[in-house]
Amino acid sequence: MDASLLSQPEPWRQLLALLLAATVVMGSPGPATISVTAIGAAFGLRDSLRYTGGIVSGTIAVLLAVATGVMAVLGSMPKLAPLLVVASAAYILYLAFKIATAPPLAARAAEASRPTWLAGFLLAVANPKAYVAIAAVFAGASSRKGDVELGLWTKLTVLAVMIVVIHAVWLVAGAAFARFLRRPVASRIINLVFAATLLLTTVLAVYG
C-alpha cells in the first residue's frame, strides 16, 4: 500500500476491519488452535514451540494458497476433495489419540516423544476450517464501494502476523494448564477433554 494512502481514512478503516475479522474468524476455536492449546497443556510451553511453529507455517501456507487461487483450482477437482477430507480426519484422529494418551509431565521421560514441527505443519494444511476462514477474511478485505483497497501484500502481511499472534495466545493459554498436569488424574482428565474438543471442532469445521 502506497505511503500516501495511509493518510486517507478508508484504508485505516479497512485495516481495522481486517484485524477484527481475523481475530473473530481465524482466532475462534478450530482444529489448529485447539491442538496448539492441547499440545501446550500436555507438553508444556517450551516443548510445544516446534509444533506451534509448524502450525503457523502451515497456516501461512494455506493463506498463500488461498490468495494465489491454488485452492480454487484444487476445488474444481471433485474427486480430490473427499480424499483430502479423509486424510485430514485420519491425521486429526491420530493427534487426538496422542494428546489423550500423553503421560503426566512429572512422569514423562526426557526422551519422551514430543510434538514436531512437521506434525504441526501437516495438521495446519489438513485443517478444513483454515481454508474457509482465511478465504472469508481475505475476500471480505476487498472494497465493495470502489474506494481505495488494501494491497495484496498488505493483506498477506497483516493476516500472517495475526496467524502468529493468534496461535501464540492459544499456546500460552494451553501452557497455563501444564502446572495441573503433574497429577496423573488431572492430567488424564484435561488431556481427554482437549482431545474430545479437538475432535468436536474438526467435525464442526467439516459439517458445520
Salient structural properties:
208 residues; mainly alpha; 71% helix; globular; disordered N terminus
Overview of the molecule:
With 208 residues, the protein is mainly alpha-helical. The chain has one domain (30-207). The protein is built from nine helices and no strands. α2 runs parallel beside α5, α3 (49-67) runs parallel beside α6 and α3 packs across α7. The protein is globular. Mean pLDDT is 75; it is low at 1-7 and 143-148.
Number of strands: 0
What is the global morphology?
A: globular
Structural class computed from helices and strand pairing:
mainly alpha
Tell me the major beta sheet. none
Q: What is the subunit organization of this protein?
A: single chain
How are helices and strands ordered from N to C?
HHHHHHHHH
> What is the terminal-to-terminal distance?
36 Å
- Uncertain regions spanning at least 5 consecutive residues: 1-7, 143-148
Overall helicity: over 70%
What's the structural domain tally?
1
Beta strand %:
under 5%
Average pLDDT across residues?
75
Number of helices: 9
Q: Could you give a quick summary of the protein structure above?
A:
The protein has 208 residues and is mainly alpha-helical. 71% of the residues lie in helices and 0% in strands. The two termini are 36 Å apart.
